[in-house]
Amino acid sequence: MAERYNVGTVMIDEAQISKRAEEIGKLITEDFAGQEVLVVGILKGAVIWLADLIRHIELDVKIDFMAVSSYGASTKSSGAVKIIKDLDEPIEGKNVIIVEDIVDSGITLNYLKNYLLGMEPKTLKICTFLDKPAGRMIEIDVDYTGFVVEDKFIVGYGLDYAQKYRNLPYISCLSDD
Ligand code: IMP
Ligand code: MG
């Protein structure tokens, strides 16, 4: 069957992404100077951003991962969040940074934030690679944002459409032309 969408042009290139990872890594390093941080990556979209980001955090860094229900092969959220993979270790008393690929409606991060706050971490911050404010349905405070993007379906650098395009080293979007 023919593809319904084509991947469009480069919106954010590799050099821009790499510079931003360095900047945010530096901010986190300063904000948590002398402390240990636990970076919780949200599978699968956040893995590439997490991998690049943590190499710019000059602290003791531990990582863990969670997986939640996603859009499936659709470009719109179902509105329901389900935990598919939980944390491996308790986070009580830890400096936790949730690392997400993109905040769209805010539903996923709002759910995760409340869920993790219930485990009484010392601090809980949110770091997202992309922010799409046009899609917001629930207000959510994000502490570290890579880039703000317009209201398009984004792919690349970890973000997928029907599990494809995660391997693009840059950010692009789907176009139907
Ligand atoms: P939210 O709960 O609506 O904020 O959606 C968050 C999740 O939806 C992200 O973790 C992504 O997996 C997915 N998502 C939202 N917008 C996009 C997009 O433009 N491209 C790819 N995935 C997206
Ligand atoms: Mg995701």
Explain what the structure shows.
This protein has one domain (6-175): Rossmann fold (3-Layer(aba) Sandwich), CATH 3.40.50.2020. 21% of the residues lie in helices and 29% in strands. Helix 3 links the parallel strand 5 (95-103) and strand 6 (123-131). Helix 1 crosses helix 2. The model has no long low-confidence stretch (mean pLDDT 92). The protein contains 3 helices and 9 strands, in the order βαβαβββαββββ. 32% of the residues are buried. It has helices spanning 14-31, 47-54, 107-117, and strands at 6-7, 36-43, 60-68, 83-85, 95-103, 123-131, 144-148, 154-155, 172-175. Magnesium ion binds next to loops.
Question: Could you give a short description of this structure?
Answer:
This protein is of the alpha/beta class and 177 residues long. Helix content is 21%, strand content 29%.
The average pLDDT is: 92
Question: Strand portion, in percent?
Answer: 25-35%
Total strand segments: 9
Q: Residue share in helices?
A: 10-25%
Task: Please give the CATH class.
Answer: Alpha Beta
Question: Could you tell me the radius of gyration in angstroms?
Answer: 16 Å
What binds here, in terms of ligands, is:
inosinic acid, magnesium ion
Instruction: Specify the CATH architecture.
Output: 3-Layer(aba) Sandwich
* Category from helices, strands and their pairing: alpha/beta
Number of domains: 1
List the quaternary state of the chains.
Answer: single chain
Question: Which sheet architecture does the biggest sheet show?
Answer: 6 strands, mixed
Order of helices and strands: EHEHEEEHEEEE
* CATH fold-type name: Rossmann fold
Order of strands, main sheet, comes to 4-3-2-5-6-7
Question: Low-confidence stretches at least 5 residues in length (pLDDT < 50)?
Answer: none
